[in-house]
Amino acid sequence: MSRGGPHGDGGPAGPGSAGPVTTGRERRTARGWQDRVREYVRDLRGGVRDGERGPLLVIAGLIVIWIVFQALDDKFLSPRNLSNLSVDIVGTGLVAVGIVFVLLIREIDLSVGSVSGLAGAAFAVLNVNQGVPEWLAVIVAVAAGTAVGAFHGFFHAWFGVPAFVVTLAGLLIWNGLTLYLLGASGTINIDEEGLVASLTSRHFGNDLAAYAAAALGTGGYFLAARRRQSRHRATGMPYRPGGEIWLRTGLLAVVAFAGAHTLNRFQGLPLALLIFLVVLVVSDYVLRRTRYGRRVYALGGGVEAARRAGIGVERVRIAMFMVSGTLAAFGGLFVASGLTSASPTTARAAGSGMLLINAIAAAVIGGTSLFGGRGSPWSVLLGVVVIQSIASGMGLLGVQDAVQFMITGGVLLAAVAADALSRRAQARRGRP
Fold first, then answer.
1. DSSP 277-327
2. 356 burial class (0-12, 13-18, 19+ CB within 10 angstroms)?
3. Residue 149: which of 180, 104, 119, 127 has the closest Cα?
4. What is the pairing mode between strands 203-204 and 269-270?
5. Beta carbons of 359 and 167 less than 8 angstroms apart
6. Running DSSP on this structure, what letter comes out for residue 11?
7. Closest CA to 86 of 204, 235, 218, 228
8. Which among 158, 177, 181, 179 is positioned nearest to 169, based on CA atoms?
9. Phi and psi for 341 in degrees, rounded to 5?
10. CA–CA distance from 313 to each of 79, 114, 158, 296 (Å)?
11. pLDDT category of residue 94 using cuts at 50, 70 and 90
């Protein structure tokens, strides 16, 4: 006869029942896991509300863009087109990273397109017309961009001329100088087998290279996230739960290895993309892990507060414009590499056309605020992929440039409006 109760085996088990017994400790353990899951979900939702909704919306928008263009042309997501896309983003992306440094201190640099064109022209004239070795011509071209940035920063920081005015004047000056350098000979074709041309044509054909880069990036992110978690926990600061770090690492691994597989189906890992990723890692480290980077964010948070904290405001401003000029020149070499030439037509387009617009749009769409103090170099990656995906898709469809201008402008306006609304919402919640 059953000892479980009046209902036999179907009733509640008594103390002497042979059936499974859930102890109080097990119930507390189960409740503990449920509490942890609920807490993790709350933390994740809070993080999305506070600072990660923007990037998630950009990712969602990018997915929609890819789906639409793939439906219109099945070549859009082909390995060849995606590989070309990964190379095409680099020139604009490098210029946009420099823009991020300036935007973080609440300024703007309108000269980056002209500086990139000047660097390409200077390299072509020195190497092709004057016979200067390529490596030396590259150094001179990049140094010219650094000097131009120092020039802009000096007039802004020490003479008090608004950055908008200084860099607008620079846009005209350096564009004119570029046309002057190229005027006598017109288009200058660079060596298609040379150092600069290989920046966009070189691929690592061994499959291991792309997979190694994916593994290194994923592992580096995981180690950095765990180190940040330990440091924040030790100092009593908010930190990401371990489950969230594993989830993010897993998602990153899926994207990274899928990208590596796609690139290997064409020509392998492009050298240009590898250089761009290295620049993003170094830039992010400088801004987030060094004292100088903290000064940049402090200056973006408020000039007077930064000055009272002992930060050399003028020196930081000059340095940021130097970084912008240097990366603009570096990006200009990649643009010249893709075209394998420097010409007055491309110089005019770079100085006052799509390169400037796309660089600013990439930084803002990715999440860097026009109001200063918020953003990172990694935001450029999302923004420039969105911009270049639109250009690539419309190129495949044969859409006119005028339509591309309108769509890019609309996307930029939407990103700036979202940034302004986010700032307003944070102000209402009492956040800076």
1. HHHHHHHHHHHHHSHHHHHHHHHHH-HHHHHHTT--HHHHHHHHHHHHHHH
2. buried
3. 119
4. antiparallel
5. no
6. S
7. 204
8. 177
9. -165, 165
10. 47, 26, 10, 9
11. very high
- Residue reference for tokens 């189906």: 265
Q: How far, in Å, CA of 99 to CA of 324, rounded?
A: 6
CB 56 within 8 A of CB 42: no
pLDDT tens per residue across span 19-63: 445 455 444 444 454 555 455 445 545 444 445 566 778 888 889
| Each residue's pLDDT tens digit, 166-203 | 999 999 999 999 988 887 667 888 888 889 999 999 99
pLDDT at 427 over 70: no
Q: How far is CA 411 from the centre of its chain?
A: 16
pLDDT score for 187: 82
Q: 300-317, pLDDT tens digit by residue?
A: 888 888 888 888 889 999
- The answer to whether the CB of 383 falls within 8 A of the CB of 392 is no
Number of residues written out for the chain = 432
Q: What is the DSSP letter of 9?
A: G
Cross-strand bridge partners of residue 270:
203
Q: Residue 10 burial by CB count (10 A; 0-12/13-18/19+): exposed, middle or buried?
A: exposed
* Residue 97: strand, helix, or coil: helix
CA angle in degrees (0–180, nearest 5) for 411-416-422: 125
CB 260 within 8 A of CB 214: yes
Q: Is the per-residue pLDDT at 426 higher than 90?
A: no
The tokens of 114 are what? 């002209």
User: CA of 209: how far to CAs of 37, 45, 91, 213, 264, in Å?
Assistant: 38, 36, 22, 6, 9
